[in-house]
Amino acid sequence: MATQAHSLSYAGCNFLRQRLVLSTLSGRPVKIRKIRARDDNPGLRDFEASFIRLLDKITNGSRIEINQTGTTLYYQPGLLYGGSVEHDCSVLRGIGYYLESLLCLAPFMKHPLKIVLRGVTNDQVDPSVDVLKATALPLLKQFGIDGESFELKIVRRGMPPGGGGEVVFSCPVRKVLKPIQLTDPGKIKRIRGMAYSVRVSPQMANRIVDSARSILNKFLPDIYIYTDHMKGVNSGKSPGFGLSLVAETTSGTFLSAELASNPQGQGAAVLPEDLGRNCARLLLEEIYRGGCVDSTNQSLALLLMTLGQQDVSKVLLGPLSPYTIEFLRHLKSFFQIMFKIETKPCGEELKGGDKVLMTCVGIGFSNLSKTLK
Amino acid sequence: MEAKDQKKHRKKNSGPKAAKKKKRHLQDLQLGDEEDARKRNPKAFAVQSAVRMARSFHRTQDLKTKKHHIPVVDRTPLEPPPIVVVVMGPPKVGKSTLIQCLIRNFTRQKLTEIRGPVTIVSGKKRRLTIIECGCDINMMIDLAKVADLVLMLIDASFGFEMETFEFLNICQVHGFPKIMGVLTHLDSFKHNKQLKKTKKRLKHRFWTEVYPGAKLFYLSGMVHGEYQNQEIHNLGRFITVMKFRPLTWQTSHPYILADRMEDLTNPEDIRTNIKCDRKVSLYGYLRGAHLKNKSQIHMPGVGDFAVSDISFLPDPCALPEQQKKRCLNEKEKLVYAPLSGVGGVLYDKDAVYVDLGGSHGFQDEVGPTHELVQSLISTHSTIDAKMASSRVTLFSDSKPLGSEDIDNQGLMMPKEEKQMDLKTGRMRRKAIFGDEDEPGDSDDEEDDEVSEDDGLENGSSDEEAEEEENAEMTDQYMAIKGVKRRKLEDDDDLERSSAEEGEAEEADESSEEEDCTAGEKGISGSKAAGEGSKAGLSPANCQSDRVNLEKSLLMKKAVFASEDESEESSSLSAEEEDSENEEAIRKKLSKPSQVSSGQKLGPRNLIDETSDIENLLKEEEDYKEENNDSKETSGALKWKEDLSRKAAEAFLRQQQAAPNLRKLIYGTVTEDNEEEDGDTREELGGLFRVNQPDRECKHKADSLDCSRFLVEAPHDWDLEEVMNSIRDCFVTGKWEDDKDAAKVLAEDEELYGDFEDLETGDVHKGKSGPNTQNEDIEKEVKEEIDPDEEESAKKKHLDKKRKLKEMFDAEYDEGESTYFDDLKGEMQKQAQLNRAEFEDQDDEARVQYEGFRPGMYVRVEIENVPCEFVQNFDPHYPIILGGLGNSEGNVGYVQMRLKKHRWYKKILKSRDPIIFSVGWRRFQTIPLYYIEDHNGRQRLLKYTPQHMHSGAAFWGPITPQGTGFLAIQSVSGIMPDFRIAATGVVLDLDKSIKIVKKLKLTGFPYKIFKNTSFIKGMFNSALEVAKFEGAVIRTVSGIRGQIKKALRAPEGAFRASFEDKLLMSDIVFMRTWYPVSIPAFYNPVTSLLKAVGEKDTWSGMRTTGQLRLAHGVRLKANKDSLYKPILRQKKHFNSLHIPKALQKALPFKNKPKTQAKAGKVPKDRRRPAVIREPHERKILALLDALSTVHSQKMKKAKEQRHLHNKEHFRAKQKEEEEKLKRQKDLRKKLFQIQGQKERRNQKSSLKGAEGQLQ
Question: What are the record's GO terms for cellular component (chain B) (predicted)?
Fold first, then answer.
């Protein structure tokens, strides 16, 4: 019997997605204990259970053991299978919560993944589907994951708390990834955005656009913010509106920011003008942080660099987010990989804050699921 | 000698040189330009036929494309590991002799007994690891996987042997390394012709196996038991210049061919339980890919393990450093073979001996005086130089202390051993510093730090000194390990005494290091006066230490932040620290100027530059305090107040941030450490536990899992200065010089502005830039800036040149660049980047980032190794540590394409255990063979097809797709035939599998309507029927139908409809597919664990056939299946019976004839027999005689008459003929006359007619 790679064990439910995703990719079992053990409502939440169910759907031969209270989870990964899958995501979290992990796993399936996700497309916590579509997909393309079938389509929008959105994500399969050298972020040449509104007056979107432009126009003339007002079945179950902004640079990197209105019945009503202005400011913050990858996708970029061939990959990032820092630690424990981290201070140039140059040598990962014909 | 007349110079008549000369000669005679036929006779080369032209073009393109391989990134390290040369051949063919000769050829040294791999330096840039491969198939398989070059020895007097072919096939499966044949025993041929023929025959057979034109080397004969020097020399040359193609498996997996093994198990554990699992360390060059610590490895023949620790050592068989000369120095011709006892260390069961070695044995201790001088030089370098080099130490100091530190020291072990062999020729090395462990631990730690600093610093300045320092470090390492090791050596008094002597010395030295007083130095100096290298080292160390003490203070200053943190971390639990660090980084990065109270930062920097030591010391303390204060007092919005100071802080941050960030991320333990704190909680009454309020970290562990990076303190984007901070991020902002369109244009103007119109003769001048004008003015005004200006001018000129060259390159290359070229260029760029990225870092840091790189000599510690591995260790068998990729240690179902080897005599049976060699592993498993039908169904096969590929699936370790494999029935003993049963390639890996076998269910109709029938006997219950409703069924006679619905009456019966009416005698059947499960049986071949001498006797699970044979259990045969002699019974037909009515109707001809046949003559009518009297008999006899005579007479007469008649007939015929002749003559005459008459008549009539005409 081949010795099973010894399992890693963690405590707490934070970074659950990272751990399960890395476990699936590295083939090492993982044990997570004390999940909200001290909480009044202990154990896994619905959205986490839904995530685990999703993992079960796209893999073959995974073993998942959860104790009765749901405070301990043992996950022994199988092989990524893919194919056509449908999944009803929990409305407690946005689809972005699930999609982020799927973006990490999708290129390494046996069959190309074509998944329909239903739930909340835009909320205030997770990166929305619009942002992921605008930033993560071009990022994956840098690694050689490309093709006709590589797309993310928003069929219906759903806002919290009701949900009712639908997204179709399809991704081709790759055996190996290309190394990347993203050290020059370039200069921002255009800003695009999407102001959406569902089950509210279509005028909301226009108001958002105007206010956002008022701030951004000070920097750049090339700004276009689309308005997207969905009606009928396509508008989900709850009202809401929001804005996502994406800045594209000359060297093809994308920085994003987004804001969504408060869910119905929670918090005070938000004025669309405020929302637009705040979102624009958030984008400026993101630009201030800078880097070749925006702050939500840092971990995705680092993961794909790790899973490359045994070549040097480099990427320039803004300040590392706490999520990314933990992700780096996880990468080390799952793949024994360390990144060379160099701080690039902001000098005299007026280019925002300090940057971090991350360098690593890929581990020579190859897709073990893909069938050879 | 000199008198001997020298060979005269002979002029070259052929070859490139001669051709060149000839050409020149022709040119001199003004004939040179005619040599180009294309020019001379252009018509001969003109296009004759467009079609043919197209075809030939197509063909050349085809050929060109065929040559292309998919370009791969060249990942060979700058200093590659030694090349593995496997010397293979059947027994008694001369393998050992060849290895000995090769080693002697390269190193001028003679090894008598060769055990395990031997590493030698064979050239300026090449080292070889030579290893012998016997004909145990385990060894053959393992070595084929690691070989770079195979020397395949063939006994020419005998011809090819099975092992050779087996090995070739193994090689083909596992990636085909370079193969070179070597023919030996060529002196046994008496006749030259026979020799030639044999050579040719063998060569061509070899070519068909390897590739046409493969090199086959001939070793013509032996001289004094060795091969001829010249031939060995040539062979060595071939090996040294050989080029290798990268093999997929080898380049994608790290592996080590271990050349040394040590048992590190606690002797006490062994004493209590001799069969306890061992901890071993294995040494060897790392090859293939990067190896990371704690990764999974597989040892073929032993099993899977996790690397518990790995460290790199100085190269024991290093390549020469400077390469000025053409050939190697005698000193540089190293040989390293610890298993054979060469290269300093000899392996024994319970200890390691150090051998004096041969002539080169002393070369590491080139002389203590030399090192002393070196170290003195190094310590006398200026403080400034030290300051410059202190950067390097900054990194090493800031990295976490702990186990790694010990490793660092462990690295230098071999050096240490070599030094010791000076003192006593041969001693155990572990007892030396036994008692030194007692002095306080804290001191030790400090010492470590200091010495480490030393080592690293000197390393940057001088290599020699580094070695020396390393030795120092190992001393301390030995001290730590001393106690444990001493146990090994308690029994040996003699060695112990010498060891104690050493201890005394070392104690002195250590005290020196601590106190660094001159007196003690003197003591040690006197003590060690005659000793050698050690003694020489100590004073130098002392001095360097003194300097280092000061320096270390400096360095502490530089890295104070990290140290602060480490101190904190020691007091706090790991997770707490984690959270704190995180906060810290958040502060530092998002609000960069939070270290607000550092008002003295500006001046501090100035002081830095002055590098006044004392001041710095003060400053350091100050700053520490400041730093602490800052953390407490800094307000959230304070940073806004002094934006202007940002620049001042930038420098500091640059110094700190990188190591800090690194430490922040990787410096802490990330894994769950909560086992302890659960126990430490107080208990109340032994039942309840006090539930302490959760600390911050607890919250973090359960907090929201979100990838978004929220902005904690947003900038006020309405302020102008805040807005300005990101101005340049937009295309509307300022561009870099090299990208700014306006500037680039201006430069181009400068470059290409000047040109001369050749037609008109006008000279256009570009606008001379404003700076050039300025320059002119400035030149006049200021003379002192001149050098600066000159430089800039030079630079400009160079830039100009470079740009022009770039332009030219782009223009020139444009025409020929293809997709392939682009791809290749990309790969090359990547390779360059790979090499350059970590080049400037020291190995310690580098190893952390990229893992241990191939070419390093590493020491790998492995735990939980079965004791048999150590107990039955046989150096002749290769020990390979093969690195496994991610999830390659897992098991699952593996599907492969398999083909039975055409030389294997039997076919393979499904579910018969068989041994596979896939990846690094050899294991026994139970495969199922299958074939894929057109619809993708995988149908089970009982046996492999004879000459066709089939699929095979087994449960076993996951190996990447595309990996080749081979199968053998058994690895034990020597089997008479070709052993490799099958070969193939891995296609797919999965956790489930769907192989089906055919299943026919039969039933019988019990009631038949028109097209509907009731069928019974196919199923057992209505439920089963329900599952198969609608399924297609068929009768044997071919009538198709469908299952309709279950019936109630007999259980399992159903109604079915058919396309025609059935018969009661029909059998109905349904074809179905039944999934087969694969037995989860995976049994690694643990051949290395077998006793010495029995390593080729491993046997695993036996096949059912073998078991039956062993136990004498015969298969119970089905009687019906037995063959019996065929007995054919005679067929009896009944008589034809025609009904009476029919008879009546028939015509008479066809009516049966009922008339009775003539019956027998009745007795009364029969004539009685005549019995004659003697008298009558006499008469009868006489009458007989007379009649005979008479008949004879008559016969004669008849003959006579016949003759007479013949005569008569002939006479008559003659007469007749004559008569006829006469008549004929007569008739002739008559006709003649008649004819004349007629002619006459005719003539006259013609005349008459003519007359009439006239």
Answer: 90S preribosome; nucleoplasm; small-subunit processome
